[in-house]
Specification:
heterodimer; A: 389 residues; alpha+beta; four-stranded antiparallel β-sheet; 35% strand; B: 273 residues; mainly alpha
Chain lengths: 389, 273
């Protein structure tokens, strides 16, 4: 961090305490960097997070408690890893603090091309990046949401513990496009989103990979997608027919003749028990809950098994009188997977990176750092003023 | 057509290496100059191949810089080593890089061109790579890698010479200039590599929503960065500066190669395979 030896860099004050000498030592910097590098290697070789659980279950309890003690399965957020990082930051701060008096003296006389100033800028940049990382870690939000085409959500789920997060507005996915090149390689994933607040359309925007969209300080990233099935149901009650389109996990209400039912779509199957497309419903009435299986091609099976309904009443589409359920068909549709993030640390870190890069370019491409090198072997191991990174 | 040009390039590097070696064995310095010229000619062909590949990708209808897959990265890595070698050898003339830099560049581009495992076809970009950051991120990282490879050659020579009290041998300059070259090449590589990490982080922020997510490639880039940061600080703090820097430059090189290739065998978002 500092190219001054502890003795020369004290700004005239020679009575320095041990922690001061230790914390402003560049040897500590080298040591900390190498220990952090070694620890990081362990972190990339040892399975982290979810993957660690499977791995640990094969290791046995003794190894498991060792891993737990050192937090090897979440190493980059382990207390000791962050402590080492914090120590490095403290080391940086101390070096900057020690150099401040000499910089203050040099600045009015010197120019921005002074080595001391470059040194200050580079290390200040690193500190700003670390501050950005701390901000991201403490106040950032990383969540995830899935929106089926045509549906609206107002919640996302935190990635660390799956807790729901209220967005404070609504997002609808109007369409999802998946395009391929002629070779079959994916070309584009695109979600057409509409953001609402206070029931008025606020903003329509496409979200692509590499092209996120922000609304109300929260940014949406195209992350993944999957195909799902949508059931097109028809419910007859005498002459009256109601058409309903629902996804798995969705519900609808039926009412009539003084009876109210709520119907929950348990699952939608492309080919259930080799009997073709089918939907499993859970029908809740004042009398209780009943399962109902609705097949698209039920007539074919009635020809082969005329007593099907007697043997399996849940297969009878008229089992819940006076309604009669029909499955008109299944439709393939998409669910888009979006990352939902807020990161107050990112602009800080980006600013720090800009400062760091500016300082580096100043250090290496304006100065004359060879002067110290050319002093020859006699001074080789002596700390020198004005050189170094 | 571009692959034909690029497949011819390793032969020129091999010839340049052999000329260089012959010059050293026989003590004929004019041969070593000829080797540099041959390498420069190979580099021109190499550059033409890359440019042609860029043009041909546009003719195929999905134009993008030739920096998008394993083949193209090997070709560009080799190009970056040659660039650093040529700049140093023509400008500062240390005269010692040839026997190391030329075979390194040769092996990378020969592996890219002749290994059956490496697909040399021009492919369109998958959505994750469709970003303006691709070009700056890859170019800065590989220019950094190239300079680091060169620095490790100086590091190796520092160690071979060690505390040998004998005077400088043929072409190998005395110890202090070696560690100065080592420091300079690390400094240049460090600026490019830091810029590579920064641009990668900005890109990750817009593509994955997180500017740092401890993906194995990210982590290994940080490990590499920490080793070179340690090296630069060892220069002002270490006991035996030249030796320590030399050892760290070799550690750094190992880390560079693991960052480039090793992480493909770890789960992550960055894999070439």
């Amino acid at each position: 961090m500092s190219d001054h030896s502890p003795e020369t860099a004290a700004g005239g004050n020679k009575k320095r305490t041990f922690p001061d000498r230790l914390l402003s030592s560049p040897r500590l910097t080298v040591g900390l960097l190498l220990v952090l590098a070694a620890a990081s290697i362990v972190g990339t070789l040892f399975p982290q997070g979810e993957q660690a659980r499977h791995f640990l279950s094969r290791l046995g309890p003794a190894a498991g408690s060792f891993v737990g003690l050192l937090q090897l399965d979440n190493l980059f957020h382990a207390i000791w890893y962050m402590f080492l990082g914090g120590l490095l930051a403290l080391n940086l701060l101390f070096c900057l603090y020690r150099r401040w008096p000499s910089l203050r003296k040099a600045l009015p006389a010197g120019t921005v091309f002074s080595k001391r100033f470059h040194h200050f800028v580079v290390h200040g940049g690193v500190l700003i990046i670390l501050a950005g990382a701390a901000l991201s870690h403490l106040f950032g939000i990383e969540a995830y949401t899935e929106i089926p085409v045509g549906e609206t959500v107002e919640q996302a789920f935190l990635r660390k513990d799956d807790r729901p997060l209220d967005l404070g507005f609504q997002v609808r996915c109007d369409a999802f496009h998946f395009e391929r090149y002629e070779s079959g390689m994916p070309k584009e994933y695109r979600s057409e989103l509409t953001f609402f607040k206070d029931s008025s359309t606020e903003r329509k925007a496409p979200v692509r990979v590499n092209q996120p969209v922000s609304f109300e300080g929260i940014t949406f990233y195209q992350s993944d997608f999957r195909k799902i099935l949508k059931a097109r149901l028809a419910v007859r009650n005498g002459d009256e027919t109601r058409k309903v389109e629902r996804l798995e996990g969705q519900a609808f209400d039926l009412s009539g003749k003084g009876m109210n039912l709520s119907v929950f779509v348990v699952s939608i199957m492309e080919n259930f028990m080799t009997m073709g497309p089918a939907v499993k419903l859970l029908v809740r009435s004042p009398e209780g809950c009943r399962d109902l299986y609705v097949f698209r091609d039920i007539d074919r099976f009635l020809e082969r098994f005329p007593d099907l309904y007697e043997r399996y009443p849940p297969f009878d589409p008229g089992n819940i009188a006076p309604w009669r359920f029909e499955l008109a068909g299944l439709e393939e549709t998409f669910v888009t997977g979006l990352m939902v993030n807020r990161d107050p640390g990112a602009p800080v870190a980006a600013g720090g990176a800009a400062v760091l890069m500016a300082g580096m370019l100043l250090t290496y491409f304006t100065g004359n750092d060879e002067r110290n090198e050319r002093r020859g072997p006699a001074r080789r191991n002596r700390p020198s003023r004005g050189g170094g990174p | 057509m571009n692959t034909t040009l690029l497949a011819g390039t390793p032969f020129i590097y091999l010839v340049a290496f052999l000329i260089d070696l012959t010059g050293r064995v026989t003590g004929k310095t004019e041969l070593s100059r000829a080797a540099k010229t041959a390498a420069a000619a190979g580099f021109c062909l190499h550059t033409a191949g890359l440019a042609l590949r860029w043009v041909e990708s546009y003719q195929l209808g999905f134009g993008h810089a030739p920096l998008s897959n394993f083949y193209e990265s090997l070709i560009f890595f080799s190009w970056a080593i040659l660039l650093a070698y040529l700049i140093l050898e023509f400008w500062k003339k240390p005269g010692i890089l040839g026997p190391f830099a030329l075979p390194a560049a040769f092996l990378l581009i020969a592996y890219a061109s002749y290994s059956p495992d490496v697909d040399s076809r021009i492919r369109p970009l998958i959505p994750a790579l469709q970003s303006n950051w691709l070009v700056t991120h890859v170019i800065t990282c590989f220019l950094g890698y190239g300079a680091f490879v060169i620095s490790s050659i100086f590091g190796l020579l520092c160690l071979i010479k060690g505390n040998d009290p004998l005077p400088a041998r043929d072409g190998v300059p005395e110890r202090d200039p070696l560690s100065l070259y080592l420091y300079r090449s690390v400094a240049v590589g460090y600026v490019f590599f830091t810029l590579g990490i920064v641009t990668g982080s900005v890109w990750a922020h817009s593509a994955w929503g997180s500017w740092w997510s401890w993906d194995p490639k990210e982590t290994w880039a940080l490990i590499t960065w920490m080793i070179y940061t340690a090296l630069l600080h060892y220069r002002i703090a270490g006991r035996d500066r030249a030796k320590g820097m030399a050892i760290l430059s070799l550690l750094g090189l190992a880390s560079v190669f693991f960052t480039y290739l090793g992480v493909n065998y770890l789960p992550g978002l960055h894999s070439y395979l």
